[in-house]
């Protein structure tokens, strides 16, 4: 009675009836994992193992969470109490207040809970065996509490009865044995759940298989038999593919959370949890936002590493509700959509009480239809891109490789560089082991791994691992080397271009120099031939230098004997015949007699030239040159002046130390002679 009103009773048989909602045994285990994950407990590590206590197989759950006080423990052992709230963005999974009761009673008939806080330690007992043996009319939950420091019982009206019930109907037969069991919780806070009298199948075998794999718990499944009465078909096994997570608890725990935050240790070995959205290949993102949804829902599509496992992964508050739900073209009996996985967090839908499905509301149906259309679009886009409609040759390698830090204060996921094989990673991995320094995030926490972990890590590589500063310095040096290499490449190309320009200028200079040489030789020859004419020149004939337009023309040719007079036989007999002192014929510059009009004179390309004039009768006539010859000489002087200006400009370009004034071109001859002596003009011949 309470306030004069009778209290409702809960029949002990309800414990079993309530547990039957978990048709799949792993869903019952997931309920206990949820309790450790929720923000009120906030455990960073959960251990699941099998122990033999009092000659009985027991399933053990130990977390390092916040623990529970006696009042909270009592509400957990009762029905319908849920005080879980969101803390710092961490949303609770449980909200019915029924998970522990349904899950634990599905796994076994009895469960005992040890929980530890800084001030108190408590034991709670939920047992069908105890209720049946005592003929209880309602569910009774014995609870005992001690002071965590003095280990003295905190007396309550039901303390002694609770101790008697626990010690009589469990394998802990004394108060001391109960207190000793708290040593299994290594930290100052945490909770241990021991489930015993585990459920068995119809053949007397445990439903959970602990024998097949020593580091895993398997779901003992019986082959489905084809009972068709057709001949040769009776008792034939039905072959049907089932995802690995339906048989292996390790595989199920690896995908249980969309963003894993809690480390799970299954039978002494860490579960390698997966970021399901990061374990796919050729990923693409899409959005879904109906009119009744305030926030856009993000959907990730990609190809699964296991081709047989495909469909939509539906999460609710970070917890997996439905796995590999076939939608769209995947429902058809053809290869369309095979291998494609979609991942979505549908917090706006309502899970049913066993958290293995959603209530089939109009919103659920609309969401599934939209996911089917979007999956079809993704499939058609990928298949049309490579021109086939099969996934046989598609890459099964994930786009990224991620690993979770084992630091209890971190537990964050780090992306590894491309090419790192996650199968070679150590069992305990920490942020400082990341080869990519940009993802180490060492400043986030100062956690140091245990000594044996450091020794094991160092034993894998005898060379000392570089510290962050050394890696950063090496990276800077590498970037600087690359920058210098690029600059050197640019300078090299610039020098190549300049070299081509210089070669072009040198070639032009050589051509101009040859022209100057030829004109100089021709001019000197003509001047020498007119030296006896007063009208040609009034300069001092005894001078070696003849000034023309302000340019000194110095004859460098040594004195040579008179050239031989040679008669040019031919059609134009009256012509100038130019011969060298060694008797070789030179190019002939044909000039008619005085009475004829002057014609162009071809240049001579050799030095040491004397000019003779021959008339039709063979007589020399050097003093009878007319005005035509004077004009020809003036033209040659002008050409010579212009050519020397060009040579001066080229010399200024090629030799920075040479400066020739454009108004003082008489320096050209002296500079050219000096350059010839110093051999600074390369292949340029003597000018």
UniProtKB/TrEMBL annotation:
GO terms for cellular component: nucleus. Residues 468-519 form a coiled coil. It comes from the Eukaryota. Residues 448-461, 527-540 have a biased composition (Polar residues). Keywords: Coiled coil, Metal-binding, Nucleus, Zinc, Zinc-finger. GO terms for molecular function: ATP hydrolysis activity; zinc ion binding. Residues 394-455 form the CW-type domain. InterPro entries: HATPase_C_sf, MORC_ATPase, Morc_S5, Znf_CW. Gene3D superfamilies: 3.30.40.100, Histidine kinase-like ATPase, C-terminal domain. It is found in: Nucleus. Residues 441-465, 527-586 are annotated as: Disordered. PANTHER family: MORC S5 DOMAIN-CONTAINING PROTEIN, ZINC FINGER CW-TYPE COILED-COIL DOMAIN PROTEIN 3. This is MORC family CW-type zinc finger protein 3 isoform X3. It comes from Lingula anatina.
